[in-house]
Each structure stands twice: as C-alpha cells, then as structure tokens.
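[job 0417] fold request received: DHA2 family efflux MFS transporter permease subunit
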Amino acid sequence: MRLDPATRRIAAVVVVGALLSLLDGTMVGVGLETIARDLGAGLAGAQWVAHGYLLALAVSLPACGWLARRIGAGRLWLLALAGFTLASALCAAAPTLGLLVAARVVQGLAAGLLVPAGQTLLGQAVGPRRLGRVMAVLASAVSVGPALGPVLGGLVVEGLSWPWLFLVNLPIGAAGLVAGLRVLPRGEPRPTGTLDVVGLVLAGVGLSALVYGVTAWGAAAGHRELALPLAVGALGLGLFVRRTLRHPRPLTDLRLFADRGYAAATACATLTGAALFGSLLLFPLLFQLERGASVIVTGLWLVGHGLGTAVAAPLAGRLTDRLGGARVAVAGCAGLVATTVPFALVDLGPLSTQVLLVLRGAAIGFAAVPPTVAAYAAVRPDQLPDATTQLNALQRVGGAVGGALVATVLAATLPAGTRPAFAAAFWCLTAVSVFALAGAALLVRGRVTATGR
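[job 0417] inference complete; emitting structure tokens
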C-alpha cells in the first residue's frame, strides 16, 4: 500500500527537524578551532560547544514522552523546532564562549525533542502496517547527515566564518515551521498528571553523565577521573528505574518492556546503534590518521556510506512491512559483519574501500530500520511517546558504548603502528556487529512480525 499524499507531507516536514539536528552536531565540530581562536578561548574550553549540545540533547530526551502526551506530538515538534531555530540565532550572535555554550545547551535541549516527537507523529499518522515504509523515509533522509556535516562545516568555515555554522539553520528552520504549521496534526493532549520532576532529574543527570563518561572514556583511553561520571550515570539511571516502577504516574512507562516483542526490538536497535556509531567514529579516523586526508576529503569519502543507507532504507522498510522485521534485520546485521571483516584483514585500496563503504551503508539500512519499526509497532498508538523516548535514549547509550569500545582499542594499540591499531579496532567493530546480529536473532525468537507481534 502506497503512502498517501498527506502522510508524505508529514514525513517530509519531520525530516527537516531530524536533518537539522544531525547536521548541526557534525558541522560545528569542524569549526571548534576557529571558534576558540576568534573568541580568545582555549581549544579545551571550545570543546564544550560540542559537549554542551550533546549532553543537553540527552537531558531533554526523558521529558519527551510526557510532553508529547501533555500537549500533543505535533505541538511539541513545532515548539522544539522554534526553540532550535531561535537558539541557532543566539549561537551566531554570541560574543563570548560562555554565552555560546549556553546557547548551544538551549539548542541541544530542543534538538533532543525533535527526533522522538517526529517519530511519534509518523507512527500515529500511518499505523503499524505502513510503519516500515514511513520510518525508512526518515532513515534514508538523515543517513547522509553525519557524512555531509563535516564537508559542509569545512566549506562554511573556510569560505565564510564560524557564525554561519548556525546561521544556515535559520532559513531551513523557518521553512520547516511554516510547513509544519500547515501540514502537521497537532495531536490530542491527554491527562498526564504532575510532571515527576525527581524522576526527570534522575533520568536527565543519569543519562547525560553516562553518555559523557562512556564517550570521554573512549576518547581518553580510560582515564580514572571518568569513573565518577560513569558511577553517577549508573546510579542515577538505577534510581530512576526504581522510582518509575513504583510511581503512580511515571515519567515514562517502563512496563512496555514486559512485551517480549518490544523488548527484543529495543535490544536489537540498541546493539545496531553501537555498530553504527562505532563505525562513524572509526572510519573518519582511518582516513585522517592512516591516509592523511583532510576533514573535507574524509567527509567526501563517507558520502558513499550515507548514500548506501539512503538507497537501501526504503527497500528495507517495504520488506519489513511485507515480511516482518526479524529476517530483514538478520540479513542487515550479517551484512554489517561481512563488510567490516575485510577492513580488519587487509589494507584496502581506494576503490575497494569505497565499494565496501557503500555496501556497509546499505547493510546499516537493512539492520537499523526493522528493529525500530518492530518496537513502535509492538505498542499502542497512545504508547508511542514513551516508546520513542525509550528507544532514542537506548540508541544514544548504545552508540556511546560502541564508539568508546572502538576508540579504546584504537588508542591502546596505536603505539604498535597505525595498521595493526586499525586492524584491532576493526576486529572490535566486527565483534560489535556480531552482537548486533545476535540482537537481530532475538527478533526471530521473539517472533516479531510486520505488525510488531
């Protein structure tokens, strides 16, 4: 069954928000050195322009489900995009590093709401039988973001100035708001009770501390001082789970995990996220450290990876709607393993590298779309705000863990030379991909079909 024009319009508008948040996160990293120099700050301080955004994004995620129920997913998406666009203008106008970091925190808080609110809108608009197709549209559109971000960021910094890293968001955000006001359903607000502020603090602090600790652990190859944020993150999330299971009106409904199909799908999506983000960290380092490529050239190398996903995701969505998520996810994760092993075995030439990157991108499309669809199809429409919040949070944690594992192995083995170090790192990424394949097997055991059951 083809998507009707109204659904296509909703999907097109939702893609704007997702693409903006992904592009912004990757574009700004290219300009940190320039920002530090122009604002008279050190590079270590300028790193908080990136860290503040990512941590704020993690903080706002736990509140998304409650807010979507309270005011409607459509209204939440519009408010989040408006906040993101306004914060982009504040970032561009910031005269000091402190004000820039503060504006980036506001921008990250808004960005953390855009993707789950958009997924909730799409899920409620199409129902379970066409969910694969519409989620694939979102996946294919945003898959090129991590690859295009460094290229666009480098061109902006070299040709214009760093404020334009944020100013480019303004016309896109304004166009998205105008289109959203015209085509997005606002959603029906439902009684939610009082916001569980204690639960929100525990979840926000726990999730952001854990993501920061795991990410920084990989980058620093396991510095002891990072044990504190890891411990704070684990404790905060543990207390959040305990409180949520006992609260009469919890921030998010963790009882969704009692459904075997939903639990299997979220586990698979988390493990697939680890494999995806591990590769997004490792491949740029391969091109820059071993092959001496610039940031812009590295981004161009990775465009094929994103295009492979963009082409494969719609097909994966149609197959998921027709055959169910389990078999499609197993095929995709097996493809991840098969396209990672060659990088660990030999030093590939340019043509072989590009062919494998395209194939690996296609495998990601087949691996990532089915578990997401299966998770959302396993719940009722009124439970989608909770499901999108939980899945996005778990994918963020999984991505941080995957990146940290690969980075730790690479840093520990670099003294032996770049080739042995990258071989070890790619074997680690292969192991992560094997775990993702095991997660896909959980979908088979859970007997998750096209409708999630």
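[job 0417] notes: The two ends are 20 Å apart (CA to CA). The chain is about 80% helix and 0% strand.
[job 0417] exit 0
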